[in-house]
Amino acid sequence: MDxxxxxxxxxxxxxxxxxxxxxxxxxxxxxxxxARDEVVTRYLTWPPHKDMxxxxxxxxxxxxxxxGIYAIVLKSENKCIGCIxxxxxxxxxxxxxxxxxNRDYWNRGCATEALALILELAFxxxxxxxxxxxxxxxxxxxxxxxxxxxxxxEGTGVKEVKIKGVFHDVVHYAxxxxxxIRSKNR
Length: 186
Ligand SMILES: CC(C)(COP(=O)(O)OP(=O)(O)OC[C@H]1O[C@@H](n2cnc3c(N)ncnc32)[C@H](O)[C@@H]1OP(=O)(O)O)[C@@H](O)C(=O)NCCC(=O)NCCS
Fold this sequence. Notes:
Helices cover 33% and strands 33% of the residues. The protein has helices at 3-9, 28-35, 52-63, 110-125, 140-148, 177-185, and strands at residues 13-14, 18-21, 69-74, 79-89, 94-101, 130-136, 152-163, 166-176. Helix 2 (28-35) packs across helix 3 (52-63). Strand 7 (152-163) and strand 8 (166-176) form a beta hairpin. It has a single domain (3-185), classed as Aminopeptidase, CATH 3.40.630.30. The model has no long low-confidence stretch (mean pLDDT 97). It has an 8-stranded mixed beta sheet with strand order 1-2-3-4-5-6-8-7, sandwiched between helices. The protein is an alpha+beta fold. The protein is built from 6 helices and 8 strands. Coenzyme A is lined by residues 40, 43-44, 98-101, 106-112, 135, 139-142, 144-145.
């Protein structure tokens, strides 16, 4: 399976309210709005950005240079409101993902809509066998998004990681291709 070509062919994904597309340098001010927010970054591995030059570096060196990273654009405002990415583990025919959203747009179903697009990409286009992800205990909103997309709780690793000096329990979720296909046919 030529994963790189499939990702390239699917660099733009669309749902009712969202477009997922590659980042551009023009997105830096919108990205800064969520990257500077200590509530948004609380459970992420990176600290809130202190100024826009840090955001510009991240957008250039990570968001614009790796495949599988999408800007989440709200069609009605033509604004980049977040980021979602798919990270392939080709040898196991599986992927993981991550997402974050500008706090002004939380609890409107946007992350759920974006993750549904990523699962469709993973199973219908990339033909992967499994998609998995985790969240830290305390960040149950993220687990709720995974549940709403049909992902199954697989267990919790106690004090599994040390992030920003604090040990966190890590909650694991996954979905298999066959279960995703069954959920589509229901
Ligand atoms: C996680 C995140 C992307 C979710 O985005 P979102 O667009 O608000 O998510 P959705 O609106 O699709 O779904 C949120 C769900 O969580 C629920 N929720 C909100 N606060 C909650 C809480 N404290 N505990 C449990 N569930 C909660 C909402 O009610 C909703 O579920 P419902 O539709 O059944 O009512 C967003 O909160 C975020 O950017 N967080 C910071 C970055 C982050 O932590 N990323 C994940 C790292 S694992």
